[in-house]
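for the record, two folds in this file. i put them one after another cuz i was lazy. first one right below, seq on top, structure tokens after. the second one comes after a little note so u can tell where it starts
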Amino acid sequence: MKLIIDTDPGIDDAMAIAYAAAAPEIDLIGLTAVFGNTHVHQSSRNARFLVEKLGLNIPVAEGAPFARGETSHAPSEHVHGPEGFGDLTEIPEIGENHTLAAAEFLVEMARQHRGELVVCAVGPLTNIADAMRMDPEFANNLAKLVIMGGAVFCPGNVTPHAEANIYHDADAADEVFANPPTTLLVGLDVTLKTLYESADFEGLAEKSPNMGTFLRDISRFYLKFYKEVGGLEGCGLHDSTAVIACTHEPMFKIVETGLRVVTTGDELGATRPDPSRPAVRVCQDVDGAGVVRLFTERVTSLP
């Protein structure tokens, strides 16, 4: 399966990209960067760093720096650290971004691989909405769009109503759901059932001295946040669960519903069922233990 991950690395993004690199059923052909956990220039830098660390030869295209109509962005430093990788703050600039901006790159790759390309969006949906505006055929050219975002049947995480990726550009998300490609939504309804604990990260480091140790080290900041804010002994495999859903749908209980996103007021970013809109497939439940096992099996195969 040909895959592009639209990403804002981000600790859980790094985990998801590592999984995609290790999964034999995935042909990872590029990364597109968006603002979110970090500023967009940090996102693309971190993505290029991960590409190098994983020994991949794929492009990174930098995309939207801000949400629709905004001129600034406040990254999630309290969750992912000042540079996106926890306590790691010295991250080298490796290589250069692709000459095309992210939305243009997505449009071009969807044309080249019509009916084959899956895009997994694990950040705000600004790049996806921009690609849909740029090319009316973009949605039809995709095999599938898989989104890590939303909280359809459960509370949010950035507010009581909203999940962070949707909240950070509610207008773009609502635009995507108004006329969606073939879409699978992997939200907090399932990703919080895939807790990855400190002992799991230690196991990664033991079996994968390079990548596993890196993920263990950057995760300490993330695990501390989950412990202090949520009282949890692990972190959700948010972005990795979305990448796993690209190829392992039988691990999920999926329902169909149209969706709208609240774009103003106290419930900004809430994802609400709307039967008047085209149906998307929404993950409602998951084999959480199975996802954790699969993630571990794949990532520990890396050096």
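(here's the note) second protein begins now
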Amino acid sequence: MLSDPDRRTLRELESALLSDPAFTRAVLPVARRLQRLSAPVVVGVTAGGGSDPALEWAVAEAAGQRRPLRIVHAFSAPVVLDPLGFVPTVDSLPTQQAAAARLVDGALARVRAIAADVDVSACIIRGSPRRVLLRESRGASLLVLGSRRRAGRRPGVQRLLHGSLTLQVTAGADCPVAVVQPSGAVARDAVPPGVVVGVDGMRHSDAATGFAFRVASRRGLGVTAVHAWSADCPADLEAVTAPLVTTEAAAHALVDGAVARWRERYPHVPVTTEVVRRDPAAALIAGSAGAALVVVGSRGRRAGLGAVFGSVSRAVVDGALGPVAVVHRRTEPSPPEAHRWASR
């Protein structure tokens, strides 16, 4: 038992160490590594059963990574229109909270039935689901979301501009995001599933490749690295382009180079490379049939209008036949913010 003078001495010592720039620089990398090791897998759950496959997928991933699992449910207070404008309805709030509690209790029971040894906690947060999930992504190792496929989706530009919650969170998250489609959407054949990753030689593609190899290593699966290429555009007014055989050879060299260091790091993971002359999104969507996971890199939310109209990752999330992981150029996870967490 420490005496009061001893406590004061320890506080003074702690303050002195933290105020020393040299000490802070030395300790910070270690603290960040420890922080990454303890960062949870976060799964968002919603009413209606659409998030059940995502919950089960997240449980398996948390168990495989030996990380805690954090269940998040967010809801917004309803509003009504009165003569003075939009105001929240207070009467329905207790009903919403009770429904949210039942949803979270059911999710916790499901997790404990699947993997009783997984360290699981849950929270109910009143607020915009998009903002809540983006905030949660800051301290997560992985964010898992469900996806509800609906008939009669908006075609073309209307559908892209509509933007679902899943796509908005995927574009803005600060950690990798896995989007899990409803189970039973794909009829699997006798070919063992593997992890498919899109490769284009960019930095975000390298992050996605590393993610794919880590997942494959944990699950005992192989990796298929897919690179889609197209003919060179004319370099001048005379329409002079490189021969197709030259362009294809460069594509093979690119994908081989992209997976080289990951082959060395994970020599036990079988690797297959595919070079196809096709649109990148179409190639990955085709490869998603029967795959355990499709991994695609993304420049993230700062990519401008190209992220809205030309994002490969967005198209793959919207069209893939199985789980998709979107990996941005990874930033270090920051400590979880002090909001209303309740271990249940």
